[in-house]
Each structure stands twice: as C-alpha cells, then as structure tokens.
Amino acid sequence: MWGNGQVNSVMRAVPVELAADVRALLEQRAASTKAAVRDAMRARVVLAASDGMSNAEIAHDLSVTINTVRKWRGRYAELGPAGLLDAARSGRPRQYGDLVRIAVVAAATAEVPDGAATWTHVAIAEQVRGTVFAPVSASWAGRVLADLDLKPHKVTGWLTRRDTPDFWERARDICELYRNPPAGAVVLSIDEKTAIAARSRKHPAQPATPAAPGQPGRPARQEFEYVRHGTASLVAAMDVTSGEVLTEVIDRNTAATFTAFLDQLDATIEPGKNILVVLDNGSSHTARHTKKWLANHPRWHVHWTPPHASWLNQIELVFSALTRRVLRHGDFTSRDDLIAKMDDYMIKRNETARPFKWTYAASPLQEA
Prior knowledge:
InterPro entries: Homeodomain-like_sf, Integrase_cat-core, RNaseH-like_sf, RNaseH_sf, Tc1-like_DDE_dom, Transpos_IS630-like. It is a single chain. By secondary structure, the protein is an alpha/beta fold. The protein is built from 13 helices and 5 strands. The chain starts with 19 loop residues before the first helix and ends in a 17-residue tail after the last helix.
C-alpha cells in the first residue's frame, strides 16, 4: 500500500505511510548526488510527510512553498511513487524525428555555402530540405538551434599565433628594461593610434539621475545615432622612467611620418645619451626606411616586442586610458575638437604623470 490518505483538504494534510522497501528507495534518491534536484526534493517531501511533519514544517526545512509540499504529498498519497513523476505535457506531438534534428545541426556546423559569410535559418532550412526531404521551416530550425544554444550566425575571432622561438627571451628583455632601466639612458615606449573617429551625437546626452521614492536611479544615457566628422591619428612616445607622454597628430601612418617623429625626439633628447625604445612589429616600424634611419642613429637601440605581443608596449596603457577617459563616450563636433580634447587630456595627465609600476617578469609557469 502506497499511502492510506485521500487528496488533502486545505486545512488537513494527507497522512502518508511508506513500506520499508519504498522508504529505502526514497532515502536513496533523496541522498543521491546524481539524481535530479527536483526528484530529490520530491523524495524528501514524502519522507518528511511519512514522519508526521506538517506541510509548513516541510516547506520551511526544504525552502520551498507550502503549495509545492501539498502538491507532491497529495500526488504520492493518491498515486504512490508514480505520482512523483512529471505529468504528461500538453501540446502537439513532435513534428520531426531525430534524423531531421540531426540534419539541422549538421548543416549549422558545416562550412557555409559559396558566396555566403555565415549560415542563416533560411539557408539551414533549405539545406535540410535537400538532404532529408523534410519541409522544415526557418523558424523551426531556429528553435532547434536555440534549444542547443547553437548560434551559427555568430562569429568570434581567434588568432593562431605563430611559434616564436625567442618569445620569452624578448619578453623578458623588455620586462627587465621596465623593471631596471639602465642609468643614464632614456627609455621610450612608442606606437601609433590610428583612425580615431570624431563623432557627435544627434541629440544631447542625458545625465544620470538618482533614485527617487518608489523609483530606481537611472544611468546616464547617450544617443545611439551620431554624425561623423572624420578621423585623426596619433603617434606617441612615453618616457618609461617618468610616465610623461609626447604626442603628435599625423595624417598618414607611414615610415616617413614615423621617422620624422623620431627626428623630433632625437633633437630634444640630450646628445650623448643612449635611447632605448620599445617597438612592436608594425609596418611603419619595420619598413626599410625606418631600419635605415635607425642604422644612421647608433644611439637608438630597439627592443622589439614578440609578434602579437604589443601589450608589452607600455604606451598601450596610455592609449587604453585615453579611450576610457575621452574617446569611448566622447562627443566631438569636428576633427579639430577631437584633437583639442585629446591634447587637453595629455597635458593634464603629464602634470601629474608617474611611471607605471611594472611587476610582470615574463617568466613562464613551470610544471611542478
């Protein structure tokens, strides 16, 4: 006998009695770490009910509602263990079998057709109709993919970095330069930031508002649409030992433009001092014209970052701060306005500039 009660009334909980073998089964299910959470919860409800606990006590102990306890207690009293299973769901039966579903997934994970950049639900439906001859709709294919959290239209980038045998040697060399700059030498970090857009919003931004009684606060809001006013590019050099930055607006990012900037730096740095400069492998840095300039200026010594490791160049930290403080949410009425605001930021930054505290030593993790 599964239980001797009838469906409970609102005021009186249904009594539950358990045979020894059924109790053992439910105790095993309630204690299992592999059972579904819902199945374990239902078993605990019935076990507690058989021990004479009230619905309110069970609900409190299991952190569920009284209605949940009442439901499963009553289902067990009426149907026994079968009452703890989910009831049959309403709705129309499955329209397509597993073969069609597999065909949808196979299409979504295959190479896209010629001439297309990514799969669409329409294209997947057409592909399936051609393989299993099922009249699959684009919306149904989309539901199948959504159930599997498969997004064939979404593409994320990744980089296969080529093997660089001297990666760690070059990285350690730059880190040592930052951590222990040679006495009497000038250490510079140089790079360009190109195609910075000067954009103005079509409507003024709205400031943040604090919370009012009964209403939440609201963050600042910025118009989505904007007007383009051209772009500007910068070349910048940071003195690693002081943190000060010198910038210049450039029209084109070429080797000639880059070496012209180096000429300015060379003229302002005290003669006789060695200049150690950190550079990435950008085209303007590795061009024949630039290499010739460096060969003709023997006090300049380049420390090259490894390929795809420009993050070792400290000037990137300055560019990141410029983006956060000025560019990302900035509103610029013209290209000149953009340049003026970037100059203002750099001038104010240099007034309180400090060197970055570089702690990374480029030591790869060693296996124990």
